[in-house]
Amino acid sequence: MDIMEDKIKQFFMSKVPSKEPKQSSLDMYIRDVTRLLKGMGVEYESSEQFVKNLENMDAVREWLDRTPNPKSDATKRNYYSAVLVVCQSYGLEKKLCDHYATIRDNLNLKLLEKKEQAKLTPNQKENMVERAEIIGAIGKLSEKVHSQPIPLIADHKDLLNLQLLTLLRLYETIPARNEMAELLYMPKVLYEGIIGGGTPSHMLQNYLVHDKDDPHIPFMISLNDYKTSAHHGERRFIITQDTPYGMMITAYFTHLLQRRGLGYHSMDIDFNDHAVDEEHFATALNGTPVFYTNWNAGKFRPMTKNDLTKSFNKFFKGSIGKNISTTILAKSLLQEEVGEAMSKKLKELALARGHSVSTMLGHYV
After folding, report:
1. What are the residues whose beta carbons fall under 8 Å from the beta carbon of 337, sequence distance 6 or more?
2. Phi and psi torsions of 242, nearest 5°
3. First CA to last CA across the chain, in angstroms?
4. What pTM was computed for the model?
5. Is the Cβ–Cβ distance between 256 and 163 less than 8 Å?
6. What is the pLDDT, as a whole number, of residue 351?
7. Beta strands 301-302 and 219-223: pairing type?
8. How far is CA 89 from CA 83, 107, 150, 175, in A?
9. d(Cα 126, Cα 314) in Å, to the nearest integer?
């Protein structure tokens, strides 16, 4: 099959001369087309004769739909993609290539539609609520917390309420997964040393970065350890003083850090100085947790992702009678904000262009 591989490679190189196709992709195209043609009963005589059998569109469709094991839509899409590439590589008729391209694109849209219409689990559907209910519950908690000046909050239970309000306000604006629960306090000088010092990405964690010398942007959230970090890398969220929200979150963080004894000590480490030892890096990487399940002095217990879920569930169960995790919180808050109209428009535009919504967003937004 070396001839087929060379032809496919030449086809791709003719489109993008500077980029050679991956060997794994070449192997996949050859494997799928070979399996399909042999399944159709075609014997290999020559490369051109072998591939010419792809002109029998009915036989291709019949093999993919054959019982008792018809191929899934995802598998069909992969086969038709391989067939299209091989037909184009061998210069078969444009009408034939267009036919296979149309089938592939329709399958892509069908799969996208299934994905976007994926049902919530029964438990998630049961716990979905209106955005107004969530905002109302958070508002009542805010009134309770603000019944006394923030700098005077010292009781264990009051600190837990302040912490809960801080987290809810964060998730209200940044609908992340549970990774916020394990934020580590990080003075900016250490953060810059770690990020700029070539620290392997798998060693980085999630940080609340504090710049005590910048009154405008005193805090930034840096997420490095999360579900899709391998694809998206570091995610940064700036907390400025331009909005009431930013000022509020800053006040909450400042008090929580003060109660933990953080944020106002000097850690002036010059990371350009080769004398800096690994202990400083270890201290920075490990950091000090920001959130806790126990705020009694001497008994600080760092919050875990599971603790965050339990905390949210307990709060919303008591306030609106439903268990609401970070996932349900994001769905409930965003579904109205994004809206069905926007989703419908995106699908229409994707259909017009003949590709997926994700492709459109990646290229046109």
Report:
1. 131
2. -80, -15
3. 41
4. 0.57
5. yes
6. 65
7. unpaired
8. 10, 22, 69, 45
9. 16
Sheet strands side by side (includes 207-210)? 235-239, 219-223, 207-210, 184-187, 288-289
Dist CA 218 CA 93 (whole Å): 63
CB 236 within 8 A of CB 186: no
C-alpha 189: how far from its chain's center? 28
Least confident of 160-164, 273-277, 356-360: 273-277
Q: For residue 245, give Cα distances in angstroms to 52, 117, 240, 251.
A: 65, 34, 9, 10
The more confident residue out of 60 and 230 is 60
Q: Whose structure tokens read 């307990």? A: 314
45 burial (CB, 10 Å; 0-12 / 13-18 / 19+) is exposed
What is the Cα–Cα distance from 111 to 115, expressed in whole angstroms?
6
For residues 281 and 190, give the distance between their C-alpha atoms in angstroms, rounded to a whole number: 8
Helix (H, G, I), strand (E, B) or coil at 271: coil
